[in-house]
Amino acid sequence: MKNKLISIICPCYNEEQVLGLFAKRITAILESTNRTYEIIFVNDGSKDNTLAKAKYLQKSNPNICVVNLSRNFGKEAALTAGLDISTGEVVIPIDADLQDPPELILEFLKEWEKGYDVVLAKRVDRSSDSWAKKKSAELFYKIHNMMAHVDIPENVGDYRLMTRRVVNAIQELPENQRFMKGIFSWVGFKTSVIEYKRESRQAGHTSFNGWKLWNFALDGITGFSTAPLRIWLYIGALISASAFIYGSVIFFKTIIQGVDVPGYASMFTSILFLGGIQLIGIGVIGEYVGRMYMEAKRRPVYIIDEVSNPAVEEARDSND
Ligand code: UDP
Ligand code: MG
Predict the structure, then answer these.
(1) Is residue 202 within 6 Å of ligand 1 at its C-beta?
(2) 91 CA distance to ligand 1 centroid (A)?
(3) pLDDT at residue 168, rounded to an integer
(4) Domain boundaries, the chain
(5) Residue 3 has pLDDT above 80, yes or no
(6) Which residue numbers delimit the Glycosyltransferase 2-like domain (predicted)?
(7) What DSSP assignment string belongs to 70-100?
(8) For ligand 1, what atom is nearest to the CA of residue 205?
(9) pLDDT tens track for 53-93
């Protein structure tokens, strides 16, 4: 079967309200490029009628492929499923909520024609996000890029263009805890960046609240850096050195001024301080052990319930 040129991957979780609008806008853009394309809707265990809606849209456009995961696996897994199924020469992951303007695809293609393997879309204006979300994102990029060997470009989401060889490289990464932003950056390749203004969600609700984002950030940092483990070496060294200096001070003070018994407060504080520091250290090690445990199980990243792809079915029928 002839490979499609452009594969759009759209992970959907409870997006029934916006899916029709999304399909309309993106189809118009894709048709205008005069290239063959496929739109892969990955239904990530939605609790509403997203699946039915996607199948309905498929009826009027055979370039739509609907992948239904067996339950909600999370956006990273849904994206991975989409990448695995895609056949295009270039692959573009995009959110269903129209926060990533489909019109940008035309610019992506222009950059790709110049010879870039990756074209990133950088948000120059995040005014559609809340103050807390903007600040926490800023802090996350700062901490992550300080610790990890490979920087994640700031304010760049999953919306991007990748060529087939980049997708192949991503598929080589065997980990099943997939922090896609990190994975995308890790594989490298010649990259171009274009800027855009992020819109606000057209309908439905965000599924990333504070706690989920915090865990997402932890996944990102622990997945791509061992600095949080190594830092304990230096914290330990610093505390030991201060203890040695403080011990020497007490020693000489005792020789000169005699025994000084009071010290209840300082002793109690240092016990609590050291206890706290040790527990944090154990917590960090625990975080990594937990990740190793999950990774050691070698479970699949996602499970597919069903794929309905009219193009493939058509080809199969004509081969029979
Ligand atoms: N999404 C998903 N699985 C999830 C959560 C979200 O596939 O468990 C999809 C969602 O349908 C959307 C994209 O990931 O297409 C981004 O989600 P959302 O808009 O909620 O995140 P935000 O833009 O607020 O970061
Ligand atoms: Mg969104």
Answers:
(1) no
(2) 18
(3) 94
(4) 6-210+300-319, 227-297
(5) no
(6) 7-168
(7) SS---HHHHHHHHHHH---SEEEE--TTS-S
(8) 20
(9) 999 999 888 899 999 999 999 999 999 999 999 999 999 99
Nearest ligand to the C-alpha of residue 12?
Answer: 1
Q: Is ligand 1 within 6 A of the CB of residue 13?
A: yes
CATH number, domain 6-210+300-319: 3.90.550.10
15 lines ligand 1 (CB under 6 A): yes
Q: Write down the pTM of the prediction.
A: 0.80
- Cα-Cα-Cα-Cα torsion 180, 186, 189, 192, nearest 10 degrees, comes to 60
How many Å lie between the centroid of ligand 2 and the Cα of residue 308? 25
**Helix segments in the chain, DSSP class H:** 16-32, 50-60, 75-85, 104-113, 131-147, 164-172, 180-187, 210-224, 227-257, 264-296, 310-319
Rounded CA separation 166/189 (Å): 7
Sequence letter at residue 261:
V
The whole-number average pLDDT for the span 164-180 is 90
